[in-house]
Amino acid sequence: MTPQDAVTVADELAEPAVHRLAGEKWWRQSLAHGAPGIALLHIELAARGIRPWARAHTWLSYAASAPVTSGGSSGAFYGAPAVAYALATAAAVRPGSYQRALTTLHARIGADIQHRLREAGSRIDCGRTPLLAEFDTLRGLAGLGAHLLHRDPGSPELRELLSYLVRLAQPLTDQGEQVPGWWTKTAPTGRVDPAEFPGGHANLGLAHGIGGPLSLLSICALREVTVPRHTEAINVICRWTDRWRTDSPHGARWPYMVTWRELAAGPPTVVHSGARRRPSWCYGTAGAARVQQLAAVATGDIARQRMAEAALIGALTDPEQLTATVDATLCHGHAGLAAIATRAAELSDPPAADQLRALAADRLAATEPSPDCGPGLLEGTAGSALAALAAAGPPATAWDTCLLIA
User: Fold this and answer.
1) How far apart, in whole angstroms, are the C-alpha atoms of residue 48 and residue 392?
2) What distance in Å separates the CA atoms of residue 114 and residue 220, rounded to the nearest whole number?
3) How far, in Å, are 177, 225, 248, 258, 394 from residue 269 at the CA level?
4) What's the rounded Cα separation, in Å, for the pair 88 and 95?
5) How far, in whole angstroms, is CA 58 from its chain's centroid?
6) C-alpha angle 282/288/291, rounded to 5°?
7) How far apart (Å, rounded) are the C-alpha atoms in residues 344 and 287?
8) What's the pLDDT tens digit per position in 107-117?
9) The pTM is what?
10) In angstroms, rounded to a whole number, what is the distance separating the alpha carbons of residues 277 and 285?
11) 349: which DSSP letter?
12) Cα–Cα distance, 386 to 403 (Å, whole number)
């Protein structure tokens, strides 16, 4: 996909009414698949002066035109936080706009965050393990923290949330064994699965696991938004991921997750299955390597930074992993790899930076949406279009803060 292709995608999505799901309540408030994510594309093009603001306003008005979900059923990619994220993206470019709607939404989001933090604090006090939805990017507090960072990085609510993540990094005891503080008793689906995941698992994904909290802690540190023991928490999580990292001819690799059986057996002595799976944003080496790079720069760990950049370059040149990448999307396809490589190049020195930019262009050349691809951000053409625009020049908006790659 090229920048001109991105403009064509936006032109085909000029009006919400053209989409068959426009009448669905969920689609109107889904940043992942629906209107708020598509609005981000129109906001980015308007901020670059390529297309009119009227289109962005049309999509934002549609997204905010009816009551939205809040509370436990909402998250960074759905409901009040999703609609507020799109509105805040526009307001950052056009100060003073959408303030009434944002004020209302942020009151609800703030109350939800406070409730979640109280429940999480009580759980930690009792020594219980969390659910993924407590802390992850898509549904949990890491994603809501990304929203706060996007909207109001100086807020006390963000610092409270970071203090919670510091506590999350501390180990717990489960069934007599020491486990990481983000160990969950469920399968990745969020449901107990004694057959496949007896005893649960520790998830390393950027979308669903500890990658989100580690990325948020690191990005906030880079922006000098910190709390007591902030760096310690980053280092604790990094040391745990180091334990499960393996090396291959194409660089470091990390598993998607660690099961109870694997925890009991100890770190692998051979390359694990995660090294041969797609290196995507949601799960896999590309997302993990970007998080490691952010953590390294935040803590001044040059060796870790070089390892992370080499791992990302390796993942984007490994035929086996690229063969496993079969779609064009941000979530688990070529567009996500391009977006990660583009952002990683910003923190890299030559020649790694030049190589990453070239690899981003390679992935975009492979980004041809299938006829079945929807229009949304994570698994659709709007996300691919935004990745193409980002690779062509610095984003005019902070649209990718929600991905926790920047």
Assistant:
1) 12
2) 19
3) 21, 38, 12, 14, 41
4) 9
5) 26
6) 105
7) 10
8) 999 999 999 99
9) 0.96
10) 9
11) P
12) 12
